[in-house]
Amino acid sequence: MVHSKVVIIGSGPAAHTAAIYLSRAELEPVLYEGMLANGTAAGGQLTTTTDVENFPGFPDGVGGQELMEKMRKQSERFGTEVITETISKLDLSQRPFKMWTEWNDAPGSEPVRTADAVIIATGANARRLNLPGEETYWQNGISACAVCDGAVPIFRNKPLYVIGGGDSAAEEAMFLAKYGSTVTVLVRRDKLRASKVMADRLLAHPKCVVRFNTVATEVIGENKPNGLMTHLRVKDTTSGQEEIVDANGLFYAVGHDPANALVKEQLKLDEDGYIVTQPGTSYTSIEGVFACGDVQDKRYRQAITSAGTGCVAALDAEKFIAEGGESHASL
Ligand code: FAD
Ligand code: NDP
Predict the structure, then answer these.
(1) Closest CA to 149 of 308, 303, 307, 295
(2) What residue stretches are annotated with the FAD/NAD(P)-binding domain (predicted)?
């Protein structure tokens, strides 16, 4: 068994930002980047996208995969040890914290590593609907992030659709209204889940239409490699009637699943499963355990906000270690 001062679990912008800060502080961090953890390649959610145009420092945009490779290199440059394994079990009941990887977690087995401080940066996954056509047109018209993808030319002055009835759906629809000719929000029930203020704003928006009791049943588009979606089949759930509508963009806003499996019995989570952190810090409900990125942020969910909280977690962990592990009150 090996002991480290600090271990980072995750491999997105939050994890690598924490790694860059901690390795520059000479704390010799170890980062477990996962081996297809939660179904996503090491590097996290950005490895599933093409161009990232809103990460500062890249005026011409940067490929998601390339951005994550650069972050990984920067972590390693200052001495972070990156291990391509998934942490499958974590014992936070006492310090040093213990962890096991998925190849080494048989009952009774020794932990692979112990650590004085742990940073949880396991991210989140946008929920998908698995509609017919979804796989074909994913990122060719379908997206789970309007703020990330909405500004691309294929959506300009085109009819766009959003699925969902929560605050994200309302926010994304109004954001997309800047680009699309119209934005139609499909809500599966007869009411919005969004907060009153957001719902009122959406319903009053001149370019947004809300269709209640309506679900999408198929995505239709060009039948060629990298073809774009052009239409959507929708169904009125009260009458059962289906129709095919023009649609050049489809944005899912049906919720995210934070990757909390490692800690859900151990750390305080909110009602949606996100790790609760003390506002303005990365402190969790256990001293010495810090959380950053999308696993603790259901509101902003951006690469740059994840990176920002990764920096916060590194500085909090550094202080905690410097002060002998007694530096913060837990939640
Ligand atoms: P994530 O990126 O979620 O990565 C966490 C990773 O950690 C996991 O994917 C997995 O590889 C690893 N991991 C998880 N569990 C374990 C474990 N137990 N052991 C080891 N490793 C583990 N944001 C923008 O700012 N701009 C964009 O243009 C943009 N485009 C996007 C496009 C798409 C298609 C998607 C899905 C998201 C996009 N986002 C964009 C959002 C952005 O990707 C996320 O906000 C950001 O990646 C979250 O970073 P994170 O560090 O919290 O972790
Ligand atoms: P929510 O879980 O609040 O809403 C998800 C929406 O998707 C619901 O309307 C749900 O319908 C719908 N949905 C789920 N599954 C399906 C499906 N299979 N088919 C069709 N529709 C489906 O997620 P959000 O991401 O909107 O919000 C998460 C949290 O973040 C909330 O607490 C929210 O308040 C907060 N937030 C706040 C913002 C703000 O204040 N500006 C902005 C963004 C998020 P149903 O209602 O029927 O369950």
Answers:
(1) 303
(2) 5-309
**Cα–Cα distance measured from residue 184 to residue 161, given in angstroms and rounded to the nearest whole number:** 5
Q: Is residue 282 part of a domain?
A: yes
170 C-alpha to ligand 2 centroid (Å): 9
Give me ligand 2 centre to Cα 164, in Å.
Answer: 6
pLDDT in tens, 114-159: 999 999 999 999 999 999 999 999 999 999 889 888 999 999 999 9
Q: Whose CA is closest to atom 39 on ligand 1?
A: 302
Q: What pTM, to 2 d.p., does this model score?
A: 0.87
The residue among 198, 225, 252 that closes a domain is 252
Q: Does residue 88 sit in the same domain as residue 171?
A: no
Question: Which of 7, 11, 17 to mutate for ligand 1's pocket (most ligand atoms within 8 Å of CB)?
Answer: 11
Same domain? For 60 and 163 the reply is: no
Q: What radius of gyration, in Å, describes the C-alpha atoms of the chain?
A: 21
Strand partners, 98: 91, 114
Of 252, 286, 309, the one marking the end of a domain is 252
Residue 184 CA to ligand 1 centre (angstroms) = 27
Q: Token digits for 243?
A: 């129709």
Residues spanned by the domain of 14: 2-125+256-322
